[in-house]
Every structure is written in structure tokens, then in C-alpha cells.
């Protein structure tokens, strides 16, 4: 499982080094480092292959003829790309995904239970500040849904 916030940078070739804690979790919880990345909202989201397969199974059960569902599936699944770690534990972010998330040089890698998000650092800071300012309301919502 993933947790934590990690400041990193994208090198000139578009590669990102995987934080050691994330890599250790991939190896111990997911039998390897095969990853799938796609766009989500204002960031990229990275799933271990096993978690991605679960999403595909859920997606197959959705009413794909419903316009909003179809639009989501198009957006989310069309951007999917497999990532391969090199010998230095880096992966290459596809240029189209890098552009869609507005990733420049400084990024944040965020561990969220079964997935990893990659944010532009400035955009993450704005999002985090907003979540912190609204945390009481967010916590109330979370308690209503049983968290």
C-alpha cells in the first residue's frame, strides 16, 4: 500500500525516479514494478498492474452507452500507458500525459493506498492548501460515508 508525499523532479528526458518507499511497497505488495499511468483530473494517476486490472473489470460492468460513463471511459482509459522502470528505478512519463497534467520540472508524488498520483508541485500546493482549509467539511463528508 502507498502513502506519503515526495518532492521530485522530472529530468530533461521526462523521467521520474520512483521514491524508495513506493518501490518497496510495489515489490512487497504487488510482486513487481509493472505500472499503468493515465490522466485524472489535474494530475496523473499510476496504478500497479493488478490494481489496473481491477479497474478494467469494474469498467466492463458500467453502462457504457450512458454519455457521462462513456466520456469518463474515453478520457481515463485512452490515456493509459504502461511504465517500465529502468535500472535506476526511473520511468518515462509519456509526453502527452506530461502535458495534460501540466507537469514541468518540480513534481509531487503522492501515495494513496492502492495508487500513486503525480502532480505539478505548484498545483499540488494549491490543491493541498484548499483541502486543508476545507478539512472540517471534508472530514464531515468522510464520516457520513463511514470512514
Number of domains: 1
Identify the CATH homologous superfamily.
Transcriptional regulator MraZ domain
CATH topology: Chemotaxis protein chec
The CATH level-2 architecture is identified as 3-Layer(aba) Sandwich
Biggest sheet, strands in spatial order?
Answer: 1-7-8-4-3-5
Runs with pLDDT <50, length 5+?
Answer: none
- Whole-angstrom Rg: 16 Å
* Arithmetic mean of pLDDT: 94
- Sheet with the most strands? 6 strands, antiparallel
Share of helix among residues? 40-55%
| Number of helical elements | 6
What is the percentage of strand-forming residues? 25-35%
CATH C-level class: Alpha Beta
Distance between the termini: 18 Å
Helix-strand topology string: EEHEEHHEEHEEHH
**Would you count the extended β strands for me?**
8
Shape: globular
Structural classification = alpha+beta
Brief write-up:
This protein has 6 helices and 8 strands; from the N terminus they run E-E-H-E-E-H-H-E-E-H-E-E-H-H. By secondary structure, the chain is an alpha+beta fold.
Could you characterize what this model shows?
There is one protein chain. By secondary structure, the protein is an alpha+beta fold. It is 44% helix and 29% strand. The chain contains 6 helices and 8 strands. A 6-stranded antiparallel β-sheet has the order 1-7-8-4-3-5, with helices on both faces. A two-stranded antiparallel sheet has the order 2-6. A hairpin with a 1-residue loop joins strand 7 and strand 8 (115-120). The two termini are 18 Å apart. The mean pLDDT is 94.
